[in-house]
Structures are given as C-alpha cells and as structure tokens.
Amino acid sequence: MSQIQLNRKRMLAALLVAATALATSACGNNGEADGNASPTSSASDTSSEGAAPSASPSDSPAPSKSDEPLVVYLNDFDEIIKPMFEEATGYKLELVTGNGAEISSRLEAEKGNPHWDVVWMDAMPTINQMGKSGQLLEGWTPSDLGNLTDFAKSLVPANLSYFPTGAHAASVIVYNTKAFNADTAPKTWADLADAKFKGTVGMADPAVAAPAYPFVAWFFQSQGMDGGKAYFESLIKNGLRVYPKNPNVAKALTGGEIKAAALQESNAYALKNAGEPVDIVWPAEGAPASVRVAAIQKNTKHADAAKAFVEFLLDSKTQQSLIENGEESYFQPSAKDVAAKQDRSPDAKLVVAEADWAGEHEGEIKQWFADQAVK
Amino acid sequence: MGWLVLAVLFLLILLPLTAVVIQVLLPGVFFGQWVIGDLSLLLDVFRRPLWRVSLQHSVTLGLGTTLLGTALGIALAMVRARWTFPTARLLDMTVWLLIITPSFILAQGWVMFASADGIAAQWFGWTGLHRLVFTPAGLIAIMTLSKFPLAYLTVYTALEWKVERLSEAARLSGGSPWTVWRTIQAPLLLPAFFSGAMLVFMDTVGDFGLPASIATVFRFPTLPYSIYTALYTSPIRFDMAGALSFYLVLLIALAMSVQLYAMRKSRFDFLSGRATRANARKPVKGASILVVCNVAFLAVVLGIPFGSNLLMSVTGNGGGITLKYYRALFAGDGNLASGLAHSLEIAAVAAVIGLVVGFLVAYVLTYSQFKLRKAIDVISLVSLAVPGIVLGIGYIFIWNQKWLQSIGLLLYGTPWILILASVAGAIPVITRVVVGAMAKVPQQLLSAAQVQGATFRQRVATVLAPLIKSALLSAALAAFGASVFDLAIASVLYPPNFMTLPVVINKAFENLKFSYAAAATLTGGGIVIAIIVALELLFKPKKRSRRASI
Known about the structure:
heterodimer, A: alpha/beta, 7-stranded mixed β-sheet, B: MetI-like fold, two-stranded antiparallel ribbon
C-alpha cells in the first residue's frame, strides 16, 4: 500500500472520528452559554493557535492592551472606522461586515459561542430583543452618556444594554422631479394612498429589507395593529409596488417604473447627489427612524476595548467625523454639538417606534407583509 | 472505502443540513436549551399563503426547466460532438461562463434587458417583451437558458468516447440515422441524460438568485426565497428555514426515486477495447447554417445577460460611455483586489479537495458493491438543491461549538470553514460529471488490471483517470469557477477581515453602486475565465499527443 494511500486513509479515518464525535455530541456542551455570567467557565484556552479570536484567560478583564483584536460586527462605516479607532485608542480592531440581515443571522447562529465583542447596527428592535434575552452586557454607564441629545437619551434602555450612536430616516418621501414638482408631489404619508398617485408609488418589502421594518413599525405602533394594516392595505389597493430592497426601489424610481417612493434616507440623498432627477420630502408628522445602536456582548473577553469602542462611538468628535467622511453620512447624531450633513434638511423630523414594542411584534408584522405579497 | 466516503459526505453536507432541519424539533439545541419545537410548522406549508405558493412555484419551475433545459442541453451536446464548425469553441466558453456566473448576475442582466423600461424597450422598441418574460412560462424560459449548461456538459463529456461498431451495425441493418440515435445511442447515454436532468432540476429548485432578482419586477416566491426570508429577516427563524428545507430535500428525494425507477436493472458500461475517441467532423453541407444558429443562440443566452451588465458597467449617470467604474476598481482601498485573491485561493483549494472527494464518491457509486450506495448518491446531490445559506447556517451550528476549541477544530472564524463549505457546494457538480464519464468505463477493465497486481492507485492512475481525464478537468474547473462567486456561503461564513469577491460585489450593489458592481463582476468573471481557459489549454495538448502515439 503506497504512502499516499496510507495518508489518505489516515485522513479519512480522522474525519470519520470527527464526524462521529460531532454527531454524538452536537448538543448540550454549551449549556452555560446563555445564563452564565462568569466568563471563566468557558476557558479551555491553552490552544492559542486555534484561530478563535478569543484565547486569553479573562477572569479579570484587565489585559490592558492585548494583541488580540476587538471583533466588531457592523453593517456600515466599515470603510473608515478601523483606522479611526485604532489611531485614537491603540486597540486593534477586526470587522465583520454585512448587511443588517446577514449580521443578525450570524449573531443568532453564533448564540451558543459568540465570536463578536461589539455589535454596531441600525437594528434597534433586534438588539433590544438580544438585551432582553440576556446576551448583552448590562448596567455599564459610558462616561459620556450625559453628552447625548435628549432624543438619544430617550432611546437608551433601562438596563443600559445598548446605546444609540445616531438615527436616520428609515423612509422619507422621494419623488421623480420629471413627474411631479414641489406642489404636486406627495407631502404626507397619507398622501401615498391618494388616488392621484395610484400605481406610481413604491417601497421596500419589510419582510425582506431590514431597514423597511422600523418604517412600518411606527405606523403599527402609533395607529394600532388594525390601523397599521388598514393604512398599508390602502396603499396596496392604490397600486403600491413593493420591491425586495431599497436599492431596487431607488432603481425603479430613476428608471421611471415608479414616480414616488418611501425610500431610506441615505439612499435618497445618494440618488440626489448622483444628479438623478429626484427630490426629497420630509413629512411634517415625522419620518420613522432607524436607530443605530452599539452593544457589548455579555461574555466578551475584551471588555476594556469594547467599552472604549462604545465610548469612542458616542464621542462628538467621532460622530462629526463619520458625518464628514462616512458613506452612510446622512443621519442625526446622538451626541450634542455635532453638525449633521449640510444638505440634510433642517426640517428633518424623526419619530421612532418604541424598541420593546417593535421587537416583540416584528415577526407578526413581517409575516403579515409576507402573506400580503402573495395575495 | 464506501464508509469513508459516506463519512466525509456526512460531515460536509448531511450534518450541517441536519443541524438546520433539527431546529424544527429542537429549536434551542445548539444554545443549550432543550425545548420541543412546534411540529405543526411542517404543516404550515399547506396553510400559510406564502409558503404554499412558494412550494407550488418551486415545483413548476423545477419541472419545466428540467424538461426544457435537459432537452436543450442534449441537443446542443449532440450537435457539438458530431460536427465541427467555426465558432463551436465559443459555445464551450459560453457554457462555462453560464455555469460559473452566479444566477443573480444572469437574472439581473435579463431584468435590465426585458423590464418595462429596459434595453429591449428603449433600444429595440419591443415594449411588449416584459409581459412575455415576466410570467411563469417566461421565467422557465430564462431559467432554461441559464441552466442548460449542466445538462450539456454532462452529456458532452459522456460523448467523449464511443463504440462506433454498435451504430455502424445498426446503420448496416438499414436503420435511419434517427432510428439509430433513438434505439442505440440515446439509450446508451441514458445515465448521462439523467445525470444532466438531475443537475438541472436540483440547481433550479435550489436557485435563490433568480427568483430574488426577478422579484424586483415580478413576484415569484420559491422555496429558497422563503427560506432566505426566514433566515435573513429579523426575528430570525431557524425553525421555519428548517421546515422549508425539509420540503426541498423531499423534492430532491422524489426526483431521485424517479431516476432510480427509470434506470433500474440496466447496464451502461459499453466502453470496450473498440472504443474510439469521438471526433467531430466537418458537416458535408450546412456548416454556415450551424454557424448562424450557434451565433444567434449565443447572442441570446450570453449576449443578453452579459451585454446588459456590460452596458451597465460603462454607462455613466448622464448616459455617456465611461470607463471610470473600471478604474475605480483598482483605485481606492484595494478591497476588490484582496477579495478577489481570497476568493481565488479558497476556490482553488476547494476545487482540488472537491475533486478528490468527488472522484472517490463517483468511484464508489460506479464500481463498488457498497450497500449504502444509494444514500451516498442522494447526499452527494443534496447540497446543490439546498440553498447555500442553509448550509452556511448549519456550518456555524456544527463548527462553532465550544468544545471544538480544545481540540483545535473550531473552524468557524477561519478560512477553512469557507473551504469546507465550498467543497460541499462543489461535490454535486463534480460527482455528477465524473459519474457520467465513469459509467462508460466497464469494471472489467479495472478488474483486469487488479488481477495483474495493480494497486488501487495504479488502477486509477493508469486506467481510469486517463479514460475520463477531460471529465475530471471539466469537473474541477466548474467547481473552481462556481466557488469563486458563491455569495450565500461567503456572506455568512467569512472570517473577520477576510473579504471575498462576492461580499465586495454585494456591498457595492447595496450601496447603489450598480455600475461598480457590474464592473467588478465582469472583471472578476473575466479573470476566472482566463484562468479556466489557461488550464484547459495547459492540459489539452498532452491529450492530443497521447492519442497520436496509441
């Protein structure tokens, strides 16, 4: 029997052993993952070459500036935040980027053995639910919490499990200037159901697009479940076109398929800045907001770095820099003394569905939209 | 060997899939909670409107595309194997391009072409086209034009060798060419036909990109689409994804039983010492007709989707022609370059490992008496039909358990997880292509070698591999190409600071940089094609010279 064959057999045998081991003990071994606050219980940390970004013993979370990077899951600002934070604090940072859905899915799948230290996303209802199920560090007060605006302070949960770093409109009204002018364009959310705009309005599907949920949630919370359903049914009857995601809505709007849309703020300004024939309306009753929040994983082994990162995000200077240099730069900062983007409308008024409520009703509302779509 | 192959497949494919499906029964099992799930979820597929429609759509689309796509693939492969004509090589290239291009890119191209304000309407004035295309039948047509290459490739590689005696005898006995084809050639090629059909069916049923892209203009939710919704919208419902995946697996199992039933008790190992390498001939007349048909066909299957993307990538906001998006690719932070490098590395390693595994799988399926062969057969196809995200989530469940860290096998969070997942994704294509080729190499050839004292390795190296060499090459290259663009797996599994090409492209799309995304896709695709062509050229001449020396 040749050497190669022997090696292969050995490799396959090893795989077989691993397979049986995995199959038989797929469950159970991570029972302490959820309710147990002590990070020591998970420490079999001798194998440091084992790839996991979490191998230092951490009874006392005080290894001041270890070589291990802080792992942050985020959906925006990945293009600038790493050097900004590393230069400001000396901590090392590693990022996992994805859209909101991908990151949420990863967070959920990793629940038994999280790989992240901080999550920073515009998905407040989801992160609120994570806090309620005990996955987040609670009760820690960032030093500059007092520097938050009153609007931002109202969003901080009682258990201090996450902190808002900014908010943007989950939808504003955008119209094609070739079809309407400032007078004829829809001005309120109710206008979208007006027969004048029959068959010309589009929006992203809340059952698919992550940013569309905070938008619809506000209607359902402020008008009640039945009121919310009635509003969106009236839109659907009026020929509302529902696209999977915001970029599709934007494309349909510039392509002429629709003439007005409920479109996410940064998408809307991106179109305008690209010279497309569109204009933006901020409804006087307010645009439902999507709030970007940062939260620390409960059993993080890099608590110092994680806290430094959250404080860094809440800092006025950081937020100003995100507005000036970031790709998702159209948002309302959560810290005081930060100037929003100059061309962002001074009338920009945000309203927010309460995070608890929105998180609890998320499944129900999304299923309603999903089932509407096939009718 | 059968057990080892089974173990590898179990580890790579079945275990992660089971991890997701089990969520229906035990939702918290990987988080240390023992809760019995809600089994009525399995019946919801008949109650919830979205799910019921998804199931119906998947079945319709799968059946329609399989019939048409397989027929198209067979016809083209036959023509191509029989005649040489100018531009024939272009057909081969097209097939490769279509196989490695992610379906969302193809679909995107079709949408740009056929939508109400699309290229067809604006440039050619075909305003009615979108009403034809964006119907269930239209989708089947698009799907057929995107998926036929799998059938084409399987059949074409099976035509590499043939035993002319059989056909000649039939012709001498007075059979017309059509009769000979129908009664001799086609029946001998049945395994390849069925392999091709199965591949088309699986790939269609499991395809997420096309229904997702088409959904921008025409709602046609399918099972993968609904699975995606369950996995990628908060609150994330692994149990619902598990229930829907269960139905996908059921569909595959049904399709495979049909195949088994149709091929029961037949033997197809007709290659003997008399076999000759098939040689395409110049047609006596009508070469120009072939060329015209071929070019017209290519203009549709390739020209429309890629032309639309190309147009997108060079059109500026004002409508002028610009190359700035291509320049932008190589300026900036170099995300694209490193993403491309990562993707190529992963795909290359995955293709090599996949080829070894796929070869062994095919060997066991074809030659061994292993009693669980049927199980291997089913598992080796499953990962084609199960959407990548389902496998990806399953990989997290399996490879992210704390105890693995103590034995150094906590692969989640390292590039190895991407390689394993890509191998899993590559196995169906590799296995089917290789099985199609192996089916014609009779066991006696190998037994004869064994009797002479040849070891397994010698038998493979001197008898089997040379006979099916081009199939092996095709299989590895297809796997390589497809892995480069596998978005679904990459987006849930990629480790920190390890961007891959599809992740970069997807991000550009989400930031409304359509032109940049199109440019990145075409550039990445171009590089992959160049690599594939180079490898093919590298291996082709050797084959020629060997035949000359026989």
